[in-house]
Each structure stands twice: as C-alpha cells, then as structure tokens.
Amino acid sequence: MHHAIARLRVVLTLSVALLATGCATPRTASAPAQAPAQRSALSAADDALLEDLSKRSFMFFWEHADPQTGIVRDRARTTGSPVDTNARDVGSIASVGFGLSGLCIAADRGWVPRPAAVERARTTLRFFATRMPHERGWFFHFVNIHTGAREWNSELSSIDSALLLAGVLTVRQCFATDGEIPGLADTIYRRVDFTWMLAGHPQLLSHGWRPESGFLASRWDHYCELMILYVLAIGSPTHSIPAESWRAWRRPAITFESYSYIGGPPPLFVHQYAHAWIDFRGWREPPGVDWFENSVIATRAHRAFSLSLAKEFPAYTPTMWGITASDSRNGYVAWGGPPREGPIDGSVVPSAAAGSLMFAPDITMPVIREMHDRFGARIYGRYGLADAFHPTDDWVNPDVIGIDVGITLLSAENLRTGRVWQWFMRNAEIPAAMQRAGLTRVRPQ
C-alpha cells in the first residue's frame, strides 16, 4: 500500500489513538507556568541557511504543481523527480494550501518573478473556483494533479480543505491588488458549507464525507490541528457554525517532566499547522490559555521527550532530535511523543524541529544547523531536508512530502519576518472569528 494511503488511514485514526492514551478526560488547562527561554536572534549564518532551506522548500511547490490547475503533488523524490509509482500524478489539497502561501513568500523574496507568482496563484484559484470537483465547497483529500478528480477513494476532507482555504485567504491578501484573485478567493471561501459538515451535531465538525457511505464517524472533538478549521468555520460569511463550537472540543492536559500544556495526538505537527497561519501571539482564551505559548512548551516538551530516549537511541542529542508524523522505512507512521506513540526506531524527522522554528528557535535552529552541516547532501537535496532519516545507519527517505516541506517553509518565514501571519490575519473574518470564539487581545497585533 502506498505511503499516502497509509497516511490517510493514520490521520483518520488519530482521535482513536488519543482516547487510548487516556488523554481524553475533559479538562481545560490554563496558561502553563513555565516561561520560555529567551530567544536568541538569528546569526547571519543561520539566516542564510534558512534562506537556502526555504527557497529549496518553495521549489517543491513551484516545480510539482500542474501549471494549468495549480494542484501540487503529494510527494516527490529528494532529487527533484516525481515518484515512480502510482502516486506520480496524485496531488494533495493541503499541499496546495501550503504552496499558495509559498507563492507569497517567493514573490516577496524574489525567488521567482512576482508576476509569475501572481499568475500561478490566479490560475490555481480560478481552477478551484470554477472547475475543481467539490461537494458543497469541500474538496477530496487526494486528487489528480491534472484534472482534480478524486484519487484512491479518498474522503472529502474537512481539515485538508481548511489548510487549502488558509492558503487561498493568504493570497487573497498578499496579492490583493490583483484584479481577479480576491474575488476568486471570496468565491471559494464563501461556497464552503461549514454547517453541512456538522453532520447533525450542534457544534462539532466531522472529519469528512464519502459519497459511498456519507459522513465519517470521527469528529474534531479534541485539541489538535483543528483550530484552523474552527476559526475558518466560525468566521465564514455565509455558512458559519456557532461560536460555542470553539469551546466544545476537549483540551487534554499533558505533563512531561517539568512541562505542562494542552496536548492531543503525540505527533508534533498538531501544535504547528494552525499556527502557520493564525497569529495567536497576544491573544488569550479564558481563563488564560495562551495558544502560542502552549506550542512553545509543547516543542520544548517534545525535545525533552526525545532526549529521554537517548539511552535507547544514542543519536538523539540536544542538537539532533524530532519525531512527528512522516515516512519511515516501513511506511507512513504517526509517531511522536509525549506520550510515546508508534514504532520509534531512532529516526529523525526534520519537520519536527523545522516546523517549530517559529516557536523556539533557540532549540530548533541548532538542529537544522547540525543536520545540514553534519549530513550534507546525504539528506539535504533539491527541496531541502529529506522527510526522515536515521542518523546512525544508511536509511534516508527518498521522498519529500508536501505538507512537511510546507510547514518548514511557513514556520521559517514566520520566524524571520512574520509575513505569513501578517497576510493571513488581514482577512477580517479571522480576528472576528477569534473574538466570537471568546479570545481576547492582550496587546495590539
């Protein structure tokens, strides 16, 4: 079975895994007591490394999007070629969301001519607004990059559609002067029927829908990457869900060593994806939850968790750590911790640290530097860091995956300039939804 199909199944079972860990007790954790360590400014050398890594990451989206549809491949080889399997022409709508945001970064940094980036964004939005198959505005998880047709009998995915929408709204603002892009973005966002995705529940959204069997049984009912979905749903100008939906999902409290925070499924990406676009800095949720700080602490707890495995895997060190959902030598796995989850074998997943650059550069940047300097071309290729590798044997994943390359790109940019946050938060629906959900600003953005 192909890695991407395995990933689809992994994502749909994360909520079951959470229940199995005993983390589903309905609790609301207040702002953790630990203060983050003082962040150090990037050195010129580190900033240059992130420039190179980011540009390489962007080139995945530039080179592996169909120029007529804008749909981005789910994965590619680290060498730059498409995979030589039945996944060759399979795209991921979540990858499209990251790629659209990447166009803004690339235009801003001059990696491609701005008119070319605008044209690619316009083409993508035009296809999704007028030709892409959808059901009530929602899109299938995996699709053909040339036609948009459903692949692998994948589900109509609520979370992957949300990640796509995040990119759509990002280009709506960063290319706001274009004569077509803002209107196309409006069409795509306003068409999404969020109330339909409630699937009969008054507050909680379904994971998705299949034409053969209807709505999936699982709901977005506990903390994870779901915050981007609920903010978009509450903020919808046409099909909004109740503001009370924000408080309807559980907030399990996790404690590991000296770290206490709100957690969910163990893979670290659940603390990263929503923050790639939503700038939670300066916002608080009663009785005092700071969602940005929560992800800072989750990152530090994950580092501590990784180092706690050093007796078993000596390659894990303060500058070589990080496990999140990724390929492994035995297929796609949702490994991570704390608590320990999956067949952890000493492999390292670069997007774990790279996706948290925006939270804790003092502990994540040294990991990126060590990977680059120590392993070089063995793991650092055309699109930056390989999806996963083992530091002490010869295994290196031959692929990069769009969502992992994407979180690396957006997190690095938010650390360096905050521009993705700035573009996305200019959409009036977003801060309005946060306020409707009960979050308050404690300092101006």
Topology:
Layout: H1 3-12, H2 14-20, H3 44-63, E1 75-77, E2 90-92, H4 93-109, H5 114-130, E3 142-144, E4 156-157, H6 158-174, H7 181-191, E5 208-210, E6 214-215, H8 227-235, H9 245-248, E7 253-256, E8 259-262, E9 283-284, H10 291-308, E10 326-328, E11 331-333, H11 350-354, H12 361-375, E12 380-381, E13 384-385, E14 399-401, H13 402-416, H14 419-425, H15 429-436, E15 440-441
Antiparallel strand pairs: 1-14, 2-3, 4-5, 5-6, 7-8, 9-15, 10-11, 12-13
Helix pairs in contact: 3-4, 3-13, 4-5, 4-6, 4-13, 5-7, 6-7, 6-14, 8-15
Q: What's the domain count? A: 1
Number of strands: 15
Low-confidence stretches: 1-6, 9-40
Q: What distance separates the N and C termini?
A: 46 Å
Give me the CATH superfamily: Glycoside hydrolase 144 (GH144)
Summarize the helix and strand pattern as letters: HHHEEHHEEHHEEHHEEEHEEHHEEEHHHE
What is the quaternary state of this protein?
single chain
CATH T-level fold name? Glycosyltransferase
Query: Which class of secondary structure composition applies to the elements?
Result: mainly alpha
The share of residues in extended strands comes to 5-15%
Q: What percentage of residues falls in helices of 4 or more residues?
A: 40-55%
Principal-axes shape call: globular
Tally of separate helices: 15
The mean pLDDT is: 92
Cα radius of gyration in angstroms: 20 Å
- What would you say the CATH architecture is? Alpha/alpha barrel
